[in-house]
Design a protein that fits this description.
Strand order of the largest sheet: 1-4-5-7-8-9-10-11
Domain Lipid/polyisoprenoid-binding YceI-like: 29-198
Number of domains: 1
Organism: Marinicauda salina
Keywords: Signal
CATH class: Mainly Beta
Shape: globular
Helix content: under 10%
Oligomer: single chain
CATH architecture: Beta Barrel
Signal peptide: 1-25
CATH topology: Lipocalin
Pfam families: YceI
Number of helices: 1
Length: 205
């Protein structure tokens, strides 16, 4: 169950027709603004409620080309031990998620999403397809992605070029050998990513 959405996260593939060719003639390096990024998975629990899990420890390579999206690179690695959050008083639940019923983090401490394809018709909405690896099992997933805004932050916030994306998708956790308690706890897991990606300047590199 993960995503990323990153995430989302990430659909550098979204073209920005209003941006100049000079500014985006080739892929540019972006990074997660983690204070403005949420990557979560949710599912139904015994029919009573919808529960969520947040992924908090992640990083990756985000090379975004807004004019030729097929040249973009999105490769995100999630560190699972210590990188799962499900609300207050969640220690027992997180311990269960780390066990062999779910992520089996003792043997597979990381999950990884590598984008393999991008598609958009209007430069603002589209899809990102990629390979998601959990527990050593790799499956293809597709996220619906929307480019919310691509512009510099206000000068009071540093003026850094920022791209904001929303991404959603669904997966069946049993595809990654995590079928514990299905169907009482839903097999289908919804992925939701909200992220802001900031341009890495030459001075920062």
């Amino acid at each position: 169950m993960k995503f990323a959405y990153a995430a989302a996260s990430l659909a550098a593939f979204l073209m920005a027709p209003t941006m100049s060719t000079a500014a985006f003639a080739e892929p540019a390096e972006y990074e997660f603004d983690k204070s403005h990024t949420t990557i979560r998975a949710s599912w139904t629990h015994l029919g009573y409620s919808r529960q969520s899990l947040h992924f908090t420890d992640y990083d990756g390579v985000l090379m975004l080309d807004f004019e030729e999206p097929e040249n973009s690179t999105v490769d995100v690695t999630f560190t699972l031990p210590g990188g799962l959050w499900a609300g207050g008083d969640h220690e027992r639940f997180i311990e269960h998620l780390n066990s062999g019923d779910f992520f089996l983090t003792e043997e597979h401490p990381e999950a990884r999403f590598v984008a393999t394809g991008f598609a958009t018709e209007d430069g603002e909405t589209g899809t990102m397809t990629g390979d998601l690896t959990i527990r050593g099992v790799t499956n293809e997933v597709t996220l619906d992605v929307e480019l919310n805004k691509h512009a510099p932050k206000p000068e009071s916030m540093g003026g850094t070029m920022t791209a904001g994306f929303s991404a959603t998708g669904t997966v069946n956790r049993s595809d990654w050998d995590m079928g514990y308690a299905v169907p009482a706890v839903s097999d289908e897991v919804e992925i939701v990513i909200e992220t802001e990606l900031t341009l890495v300047s030459d001075e920062d590199a």
